[in-house]
Description:
By secondary structure, this protein is α/β, with parallel strands linked by helices. It folds into 2 domains: 10-205, Rossmann fold (3-Layer(aba) Sandwich), CATH 3.40.50; 212-323, Chorismate Mutase Domain, subunit A (Up-down Bundle). The chain contains 12 helices and 12 strands. It has helices spanning 18-33, 52-65, 85-103, 115-127, 132-135, 163-172, 189-195, 197-202, 207-235, 247-251, 255-270, 278-289, and strands spanning 10-13, 40-45, 70-75, 108-110, 141-143, 153-155, 236-239, 242-245, 297-299, 302-306, 319-323, 333-336. The protein has a 7-stranded mixed beta sheet, with helices on both faces. The chain has a 5-stranded antiparallel beta sheet with strand order 7-8-11-10-9. Strand 9 (297-299) and strand 10 form a beta hairpin. Helix 1 (18-33) packs across helix 6 (163-172), helix 4 (115-127) crosses helix 9 and helix 9 crosses helix 11 (255-270). The protein is globular and about 70 Å long.
Amino acid sequence: MAAVEAPWPGAVGVSGGSDSLALMFLLRDWAKSRRLPPPVVLCVDHGVRPESLSEARQVARWARKAGLAAHVLTDADRKPLHSDIEAACRALRYRLLGAWTSKRNLKAVYVAHTLDDQAETFLLRLGRGSGVDGLAAMRPVAPYPHPVIPELKVVRPLLSFDRLDLRAYLLELCQPWLEDPMNADPRFARARIRNAWPQLEALGLTRPRLAQTAEHLGRARAALDTVSQAVVVRAFRPLADGAALDPRALGGAPRELALRALAGILMLVGRRTYRPRFERLEALFESLSACETTKGRTLHGCTIAPASRKYAVFGASTLLIRPEKPRQSPGKIRTGPQ
Length: 338
C-alpha cells in the first residue's frame, strides 16, 4: 500500500473528504498486515468556515472509532484569510502537520493526492504557463513542502487511484465522508476544472491521459535536473550564508538549464520547497543576464545584490544571493483532545 521507499512510521493528514478517509483506512490495514505501528491521524482546523472545528472533531471521532490515535491541530495565532484562500489553507495545513509530526520523531506525512489531483494540477499549471517542473507529476515520495522541516518526507500512495474507486471502497465500509463546499465553488479554479471534465474528456483530455503526460514530464524533469548541475558548478559558489553568482556564466548557459540552476539555488538559499513562479524567475534571469542588477532584487525568500570586494569571487560582476530577513515568526500550534 505505501509508496516504494516510503518512511514509516508516519502521520496521515485527514480532512474528512473521501480521498483522505480512504487513505486512513488503507494505511491502517496495511500497517496491521505487516505488524507495524499504526498511522497517527492529524486533522487541521483551518478556521475558514464556521463548521471547520466541528468537522475536524468529527474526523477525529471517525479515526478513533477505527482504532487510531487522532489529533486536531489549530493555529493559535491564526489571522483572517482575505485572498488566495486555497494557497493559504495549503500552507497552513503543511506547516501544522509537519511541525507536529517532526516533534514526535515520525518520518513522514502521508497525504491523499489521487490520479484526479494529478490531472487537475496539470491543467491548473498549464493555465499559468508553467514550465517542465510545474507540469511534471507529483512524486510518490518527496521532500516535505515546508522549508523548516528538511528531514521529513511527504508520501502520496494514491497517485494511481481514481477518486470514484476510493468512494466505492468507503461505501463498502459503510463509512460516510464530508463534502467541502469549496470543492464546488466556481470562484476557485480547481472547482471550475472539475465542472468542465465532461467537455475536456470529449476532446480526449481524460484524467488518466493527463496524469500520464505529467509522468512523462516528470522523467524529463529528472533528466534536466542532472544536466543542470553543470551550470551550477560553473555559475555559483557556495558561501556560509548563501551563494556567489557569476551572471555572465549563467547568461551563457542554455536558457532552460540556466533557469533550472537559478531556481535550485534560490530554493536552497531561501529554504523553499517549491520553485519560484516561472514568469518571475524569467524576469530575474533576464535582469541578471543583462547585468542590470545594480541595486538588488528579491525573489523566493532571497536577496540578489552586487557583491562587496571581499566576496567578488567572479570579479567585479559577482552577485550575492542571500536569505531575505524574516518578516514575522510562525504561529503556535494548539492541540488537544478535541
